[in-house]
Amino acid sequence: MHRNQNSSDPQPIIIVGIGETADIAHEYFSVDEQYDVVAFSVSAEYKKTDTYQNKPLIALENLSDVFPSDQYKVFVALSSGRLNRDRQSMYDQIKQQGYSCVSYISPRAFVWRTASIGENCFIFENVTIQHGVSIGNNVTVWSNSCIAHQSEVGDHVFIAPGCMICGYAKIGSFCFIGANTVFADHATIGDNSFVGMGSVISKTIASHAFVRPAKPFVVPFDRHFLEDRS
pLDDT value at position 230? Predict the structure, then answer.
């Protein structure tokens, strides 16, 4: 399939994946006038039908024959499996076929002009990315997260909703950052790390870390608090 694209035309893209993440990406890209989702793609072993979301579903192995890489761009829509290695593996395959990948940045996100964001990133609504922030390739940042000034996020990272990453923090590649995690100023975590939701990172943590939040302290309920003392 060939397409002549004028400068005013939306960018035709193929979404790689047919799971939950691909469904979400399709919804967001479809309402953005910059993009036109023309097809989906998966590895041949997972292709059980010829269409998905009323679009052609093409085996990844044949994708460049049907949609040439000089005319179409790609978004790899996989989640965070194996510390984002599933998404990274597919991203690498797409790059080896010569494709460029698009990034989606919600019009309801705030991204300061000096921030840099790599390709195949997905930045959801109500995300704040401040001055001097650097985000690598193949990164997902979910809603209501803030990445403060001069912080760095490596490649192949997943940041769940509601995270607060304070200034000059650093997140290595292949990390998963659970919902409502807080990074203090200058806090760092190395590559290949998993941070459980609600954690507080206040220092430098080496690579290959598994960070668990503190256990909640439960106080037995005192029914006397409900007594009417008037």
Answer: 64
CA–CA dist 77, 111 (Å, integer):
22
Same domain, 38 and 118: no
CATH of the domain at 37: 3.40.50.20
* pLDDT at res. 225: 67
**pLDDT tens digits along 67-76:** 999 999 999 9
CA dihedral 26, 113, 91, 205 (to 10 degrees): -120
SS (H, E, C) 19-86: CHHHHHHHHHHHCCCCEEEEEEEECHHHCCCCEECCEEEEEHHHHHHHCCCCCCEEEECCCCHHHHHH
